[in-house]
Amino acid sequence: MRKQRLIAGVLFFVITFVLLTSVLDMGIVGAQSTVPVQGMNITASGPGGTGYALSDSQGHFTINKNLGSGTYSITAELWGYVETTIDNIVVTAGSTSNVTILMELSGVLVGKVTDASSGLPIQSAYVAAYNASGDYEELCTAITDANGNYRLATDLPTGTYTVTAHYTANHVSKTVSGISVTSGNATTFVNFALAKSGVIEGTITDAKSSAPLPSITIEATDAYGNVACVSHTDSSGKYSLDNNLPSGIYLVTTVNPSGHAPKIVGGLNVTAGSTTTLNLNLDPSGIISGKVTSSSGQPVPRASITARSGTSTANTTSDSDGNYRITDGLGTGTYSVKAISGLISNLVNDINVVQGQETSNVSITLAVPPSGTVTGKVTDSNGSPISYATVDAQGSTGSVSVVTDENGNYAITGLTAGSYKVTAIANGFQSASQNSVTVTANTVSSDVNFGLSTVTSGTISGIVIAYATPTNAQNTPTPEQTTPGEVQSTPGFPFAILIAIVAVVLIVVILVVAVLLRSRNKGKRFEVKAEDEDEDEEADKEES
Length: 544
What we know:
Helix content: 10-25%
CATH class of one domain: Mainly Beta
Strand content: over 45%
Number of strands: 42
Largest sheet: 5 strands, mixed
Structural class: mainly beta
CATH topology of one domain: Immunoglobulin-like
Low-confidence stretches: 21-31, 469-496
Number of helices: 2
CATH architecture of one domain: Sandwich
Radius of gyration: 38 Å
Shape: flat
CATH superfamily of one domain: Immunoglobulins
């Protein structure tokens, strides 16, 4: 009996080993192995600067410039993968920090865009994938080729997405929601058949000279107040609103036309598949001009100015002397003009404007406290100017930052009187600060200069890898293998199903072995009983 149990145990072990080996050969373990990724774009950014690198054929990369001591984040991105970020990488000048970046293969969306009437492919359709959450952030985009095919294969981790085909000439946009995508080894096909759009086209000219007006923005709004299509006039003043206009009534508006008053045309009847002609003559814009000053009469530069009448708005910014002039998008009417500087604003109402005429001396006073200015220059150790350096003035009421010009010069205005810490920061250089810079109202604190030393860089080195999968998501079938409007998914063979199959087979084997052993033992008991009966019979004969 003991020998039989030993044989059963050995048999169970052998069968289990063979089945598990077969499962491993099918690629389950292989799906967890890794391969190096070549050509990955890697960016390290932190307080000491920003560095860049590309991974080589073995997936290795090294960033050894512009990384001063501090804590950094690394971002890796490449077509076909999901963008990956690793935070809190500590870098020390002169030392190396090692990082392994594990990339996730993107899911892939493949499909075709066709004309709903003819079935012919639509070239140059714009297709975009969005999160199903509805935040409308484009995660991946593509343009259809001559056969109407598109391929979305980047930044699509496992999840559910919304896909839209739009901005397509002579067609109406279409959206498909609830598209499931699986990272790496799953492909989803989404095809679009787009209905015909109506078209609004024409020429925009100057009302006085009849000259064509180029670069005018014009838009069509549907009955629900949604902007359905936007276009711009060409050098001949011609425009065409030619997509996403199903049959309906539309409002057509020119948006802040340069030097001209806006034009609004409502109740325009549009029919899908047909063209409606609308030519527009624009009158010269009215003009509002004036000055923004503080309560003490000092000019307020860089104030944001907005003129509003109903739904029409026009904007500008005050110059260094506080002067402003709004010259575009003002038709005849009554306007309110608002000036904003920081958190302080003021509104002037009942400004009458006549198109083609200037309404001047619209002065706006802001209750800003008296302020001073800090100016200076940022250079390197050789005295060469550093452009695009950030200069920050930190005081008791907050901070103000500016960027140096091409000559390294900067000016920080609007600073209330007091003491400031002024800091200059530039990529690849050690930051520098000047403490206790005194600012006096209505004066300029000049020559707050900085000479920055080149940063002693640390190094971030590492490797970029990705999981190798049984099904390569980058080698998917072509869209022609599906019918228009059909959505299909082709996942890899599920691991859970394989495990279930193995378990069932093992249970069956164990039961078969148990039955065989039971039958064998039963047979032996019958043989022993028969032998005993024969011996009893022989004994009876001898006694007789």
